[in-house]
């Protein structure tokens, strides 16, 4: 080894011990006769002192050192002089008196400083990702990612799970997103697909008698990107035989709660994880992945809105829409300019507008007067109506009520944006608190207006709720409940799972509802349907996303900050320059031609 200790590990117990260190030069400070260098490796930073009275040669070399040069230093650990300790550094009580130094590799001037407190354009960070990963915050993210994955493996191994790898080159089957296709050279005109998830493969492992399976699986989806999506992502894939929903939820809660307490014990964790029904969270929060760290719960006020003369409300209610809103505490004093800013947030979310009512003054609701109520144009109503609205949404003196109207699904989406915006604006969510919850009782199917057909809410292998199988032959498909569940935390969906269908006739019936012909079913799913005829056990599972988990644990805004080499939102790898054109000879080998 070129070093006998790590920079960040040195403490008072190492005083008077000679060590050899190796790492990167951080800050270099020349104090006129003595040079101080912050030496950094993965473990942290330690201060190295170059004194010409200790080693003239080492001091001479130190005069040439520049940031990010790679050096080896040999010296003796000593206490810092009284008053010069640095409590912000783990090694702040000690320093190393350099006796020799060797430059292992100089460095060009980097395109940005290798520190956490510098603003750098993300495209530049991704272009020089190997430099960006040197920053302490990025090192910490990758260390926590490693600890999370290791904890998962140890936890599941102790409970009898087998880690089994599944193929990366498989058959293209519909699973909700576009497949990445891989042409076959040996069978021209045919293609493999990269797996969107190991869904059918893990079910086949249950048919194989494995009973408890997991995998840290790479998954690929050709979809538009945003902060919490990548073309390739990593998930914990987990499947169990002979289980009910609660078995999987209990295991997942134990895994996540103990993992948080072990890996990031500084986080505040709320236990037990609540179980929330899909309809309930949509009614109260407008989202199936609510941030439960604050209230601002929504209420349907369509009946009250119908009593107003506001033509927008009447028009939307007449078309089957709803009017819904929530109270924002202490915001009755918003200025006209601030209200306009809120209206712009609503428009940016896709809404046509935003209505509001402000309850000014400090009087109780019973003492409310017309002068204390300030409303959007068209919403000037008697005090009695305003009082009933306030009671419905839980508003009081000094509060503001935000109202939106439209089709139920869109209103929920718009109000969710407004709720999260106000929660962030008012600082209502504690950043150090994690509130996990399970959302259950999802619908089995959703109607696709554009395609005019039913789609699976989760995927076609999800089982309907017990006793509701016969509804597949009826006209009430939208009210069939699924044995599906999500794990959410602080406004993010971390995992989805379900109890699976394990009988051929029921699976074929679901495919029929989804519009597949018998020929399509046999071509796309014949292998798993045949497997179900050979004693398939009842089974189910869940698939938490590793990238999103680590992003939440590290307070990262984007999952790109917890992936070593991510792609941009346009799917570009700025480091390697991918995707790129390939040699025409490679295309000929694959019997492919590119058309413009």
Helix fraction by DSSP (H/I, runs of at least 4)? 25-40%
Please compute the radius of gyration using only Cα atoms. Answer: 30 Å
- Categorize the overall geometry: globular
Rounded mean pLDDT is 94
Helical stretch tally: 16
Looking across the biggest beta sheet, what order are the strands in?
A: 6-9-10-24-23-22-19-12
Find the count of extended strands (DSSP E, 2+ residues).
24
**For the terminal residues, how far apart are their CA atoms?**
55 Å
- Strand % is 15-25%
Low-confidence stretches: none
Q: Structural class of the helix and strand makeup?
A: alpha+beta
The biggest sheet amounts to: 8 strands, mixed
Give a structural overview.
The chain has helices spanning 56-62, 122-127, 129-132, 136-157, 199-207, 245-263, 278-285, 302-305, 311-318, 336-348, 383-393, 408-425, 504-513, 518-532, 546-553, 584-589, and strands at residues 18-30, 35-41, 44-50, 70-79, 94-105, 162-163, 180-183, 191-194, 212-220, 232-241, 268-269, 275-277, 299-300, 322-328, 355-359, 373-375, 400-406, 433-434, 436-440, 445-448, 453-456, 484-489, 492-499, 539-544. With 596 residues, the protein is an alpha+beta fold. The strands form six sheets. Strands 6-9-10-24-23-22-19-12 form an eight-stranded mixed beta sheet, sandwiched between helices. A five-stranded mixed barrel has the order 1-2-3-5-4. A hairpin with a 4-residue loop joins strand 20 and strand 21. Helix 4 (136-157) crosses helix 15. It is globular and about 90 Å long. The model has no long low-confidence stretch (mean pLDDT 94).
């Amino acid at each position: 080894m070129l070093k006998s200790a790590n920079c960040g590990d040195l403490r008072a117990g190492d005083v008077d011990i000679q060590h050899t260190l190796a790492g990167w030069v951080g800050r270099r400070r020349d104090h006129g006769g003595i040079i101080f260098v912050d030496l950094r490796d993965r473990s942290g930073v330690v201060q190295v002192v170059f004194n010409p009275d200790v080693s003239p040669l080492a001091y001479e070399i130190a005069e040439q050192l520049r940031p990010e040069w790679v050096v080896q230093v040999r010296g003796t650990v000593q206490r810092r002089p009284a008053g010069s300790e640095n409590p912000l550094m783990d090694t702040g009580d000690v320093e190393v008196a350099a006796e020799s130094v060797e430059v292992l590799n100089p460095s060009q001037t980097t395109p940005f400083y290798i520190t956490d407190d510098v603003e750098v354009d993300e495209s530049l960070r991704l272009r020089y990702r190997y430099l960006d990963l040197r920053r302490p915050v990025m090192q910490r993210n990758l260390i926590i990612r490693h600890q999370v994955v290791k904890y998962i493996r140890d936890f599941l191994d102790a409970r009898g799970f087998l880690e089994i790898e599944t193929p990366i080159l498989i058959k293209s089957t519909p699973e909700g997103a576009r497949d990445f296709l891989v042409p076959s050279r040996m069978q021209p005109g045919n293609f493999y697909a990269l797996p969107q998830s190991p869904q059918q493969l893990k079910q086949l492992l249950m048919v194989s008698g494995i009973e408890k399976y997991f995998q840290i699986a790479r998954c690929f989806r050709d979809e538009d990107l945003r902060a919490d999506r990548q073309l390739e992502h990593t998930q914990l894939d987990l499947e169990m035989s002979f289980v009910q929903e609660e078995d999987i939820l209990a295991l997942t809660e134990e895994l996540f709660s103990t993992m948080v307490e072990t890996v990031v014990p500084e986080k505040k964790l709320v236990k037990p994880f609540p179980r929330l029904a899909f309809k309930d969270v949509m009614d109260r929060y407008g989202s199936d992945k609510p941030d439960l760290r604050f209230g601002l719960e929504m209420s349907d006020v369509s009946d009250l809105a119908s009593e107003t003369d506001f033509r927008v409300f009447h028009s939307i209610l007449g078309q089957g829409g709803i009017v819904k809103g929530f109270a924002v505490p202490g915001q009755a004093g918003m200025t006209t300019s601030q209200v306009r800013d809120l209206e712009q947030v609503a428009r940016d979310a896709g809404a046509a507008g935003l209505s509001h009512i402000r309850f000014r003054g400090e009087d109780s609701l019973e003492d409310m007067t017309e002068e204390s109520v300030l409303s959007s144009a068209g919403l000037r109503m008697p005090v009695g109506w305003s009082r009933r609205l306030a009671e419905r949404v839980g508003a009081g003196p000094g509060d503001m009520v935000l109202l939106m109207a439209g089709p139920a699904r869109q209103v929920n989406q718009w109000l969710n944006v407004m709720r999260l915006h106000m929660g962030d604006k008012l600082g209502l969510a504690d950043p150090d608190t994690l509130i996990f919850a399970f959302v259950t009782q999802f619908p089995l199917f959703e109607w696709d207006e554009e395609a005019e057909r039913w789609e699976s809410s989760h995927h076609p292998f999800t089982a309907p709720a017990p006793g509701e199988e016969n509804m597949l032959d009826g006209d009430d498909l939208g009210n069939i409940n699924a044995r599906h569940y999500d794990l959410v935390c602080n406004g993010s969906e971390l995992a989805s799972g379900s109890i699976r269908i394990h009988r051929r006739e029921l699976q074929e019936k679901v495919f029929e509802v989804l519009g597949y012909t018998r020929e399509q079913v046999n071509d796309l799913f014949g292998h798993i349907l045949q497997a179900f005829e050979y004693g398939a056990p009842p089974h189910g599972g869940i698939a938490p996303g590793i990238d999103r988990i680590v992003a939440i644990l590290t307070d990262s805004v984007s999952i790109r900050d917890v992936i070593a080499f991510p792609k941009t939102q346009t799917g570009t790898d700025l480091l390697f320059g991918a995707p790129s054109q390939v040699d025409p000879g490679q295309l000929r080998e694959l019997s492919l031609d590119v058309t413009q």
